[in-house]
Design goal:
By secondary structure, the protein is of the alpha+beta class. The chain contains eight helices and 26 strands. The strands form six sheets. The chain has a seven-stranded mixed beta sheet. The chain has a seven-stranded mixed beta sheet with strand order 14-15-16-17-21-18-22. Strands 2, 3, 8, 9 and 10 form a five-stranded antiparallel beta sheet that branches. Strand 5 and strand 6 form a beta hairpin.
Length: 497
């Protein structure tokens, strides 16, 4: 993907969340969508405050969430605008307004900074990573803390609003939907939560690019088998520019980092379109230009909490070898409402060439924090628990290692380096093509100077891990790890690849 199209589409993603992006909404038993063409989609922008040398014009859309059940309210959105900005230069600040100048109705001035040019010497200063955010008092603490850490980019790994924890009529949400609403004819959603969440995030997303991937709370089924309607309508991603034919998975560059965003709730089988796209995308990565390779999706493969334990084992079995073969450096996930950082691992075996998996599903959602570990006495779920909303069930007993013959470990697994049940967020600071500093910030440390919950340097050593890869396109034996665990016990402090 070219630099220009990457930058253009990155900006498109967040501009539609400005105040001029939502113009009224309707909710009730009978609703009629507004005409999206009734308000224009414009962005005026330039390099100096108050001087706009370019005007971008785009498209406007509305969507509906419909439930043909007695007593359930339907929803139709306000007008959502998507504008693609052209002619942007890397590493440059732009000032802009958005709206419709013919009414006239323009927003106040905002500004943003484009990503640095892809290069092994250029990186975003601070990349914030959040998952499972929601719209609660804990969410507010997370965003306040994140804002204090001054990010230059946000990576949102799914489960944004939790609108589906409410009835269509609103009211009080529930941490357990099926427990609170056992007679609901369908998994309802209160769509105005999306609008409230957009206003809540506006101070950040009006100035900072936010890249997103879908989670299970974005499925939001409605009549006719329609799913993900709000998510797909509200967020624009560089799918086309990255060769993807689906907004559920895509890739992009930010300086010397190539990001791969994968969909856990669409077909991930090795015979499917997503897998074919992923393989082609990985083959196209030039590690001399973007040395760091970072992947993200919602549901973790490596997770020692009882919640969602081995839930997406099928996806791991389909895709893990491919990510390992191309030496992905870091993987970010959410879904589990806690924090966990893994040692470098491949196929449940410590491997200095495997990715560092990090779970940050601790943004502050309504479903509360997860506290039970699968290795705690009496907490190991059965193989029939934790059934995914999408995909098959591939639960595995372990044939080797400390969990030999068992479904769960009887102690913290050796691949689990650090875990804590607290809300928070992470900051990734890539220093150069070798070093990156990862810091997890707990919400309770918001007002403490220089306090961190977890911090490590992640270190790349391609001369170690790339030297035996004569042809990465060739298939690897699945249990290819021959590294002894004793040789990498230091990984909980410094991660090597």
């Amino acid at each position: 993907m070219s630099l220009q199209t990457s930058l253009n589409r990155l900006l498109l993603q967040f501009l539609h969340q400005l105040p001029c992006g939502f113009l009224g909404l309707l909710i009730g038993l009978n609703v009629t969508p507004v005409d999206p063409a009734s308000v224009g989609s414009e962005v005026w922008y330039g390099k100096k405050s108050g001087k706009y040398t370019s005007v971008g014009k785009g498209d406007s859309v509305v969507y509906s969430q419909l439930y043909p059940f007695e007593g359930l309210w339907n929803y139709t959105s306000g007008i959502i605008h998507h504008v693609k900005l052209k002619g942007l230069e890397p590493g440059t600040r732009y000032y802009y307004k958005c709206g419709d100048s013919s009414i006239p109705a323009m927003s106040q001035e905002h500004y943003f900074e484009t990503f640095p040019k892809p290069s092994p010497n250029n990186y975003p200063a601070r990349i914030a990573v959040i998952g499972d955010l929601g719209l609660t008092s804990n969410s507010t603490s997370t965003i306040d803390h994140l804002n204090y850490n001054d990010p230059s980019m946000i990576l949102m790994v799914g489960d944004l609003t939790y609108a589906n924890q409410y009835l269509t009529t609103g009211g009080k949400g529930a941490s357990c939907y099926s427990c609170a609403f056992p007679d609901a004819p369908i998994r309802e959603t209160y769509q105005p939560r999306w609008d409230g969440w957009g206003r809540f995030m506006e101070p950040l997303t009006s100035e900072i690019p936010m890249m997103v991937i879908e989670g299970n709370h974005e499925i939001e089924p409605q009549a006719g088998g329609i799913t993900f309607k709000s998510y797909l309508t509200r967020f624009a991603v560089p799918a086309e520019e990255s060769g993807s034919k689906s907004n559920f998975y895509y890739s992009f560059d930010a300086g010397g980092i190539h990001f791969i965003m994968l969909g856990a709730y669409v077909d991930y089988n090795s015979t499917g379109a997503q897998f074919a796209w992923l393989k082609k995308d990985l083959q196209s990565v030039d590690r001399s230009v973007t040395p760091w390779l970072v992947a993200a999706w919602h549901s973790p493969w490596y997770n020692s909490y009882a919640s969602h334990y081995q839930e997406f084992e099928c996806m791991r079995l389909e895709m893990e070898e491919l990510l390992f073969r191309y030496r992905v450096d870091i993987v970010f996930d959410g879904h589990v409402h806690a924090y966990e950082r893994m040692n470098r691992v491949f196929n449940y075996t410590l491997d200095p060439c495997g990715p560092v998996y990090i779970t940050v599903g601790d943004g502050g959602n309504i479903e509360k924090v997860d506290v039970d570990h699968a290795d705690d006495p009496g907490k190991c779920p059965s193989a029939g628990d934790n059934i995914p909303e999408f995909g098959g069930v591939c639960k595995s007993n372990f044939s080797t290692g400390p969990a030999k013959g068992n479904f769960c470990w009887n102690k913290q697994p050796e691949w689990s380096a650090f875990r804590e049940s607290s809300f928070g967020h992470g900051i990734l600071e890539v220093v150069n093509s070798t070093y990156a500093l990862w810091t997890w910030h707990r919400n309770q440390d918001n007002y403490k100077e220089n306090a961190v919950g977890d911090q490590i340097y992640i270190v790349r050593q391609p001369e170690l891990c790339m030297k035996d890869l004569k042809d990465p396109h060739q298939s690897l034996p699945y249990n290819s790890s021959t590294k002894s665990s004793s040789a990498i016990n230091h990984l909980s402090q410094v991660e090597w690849s």
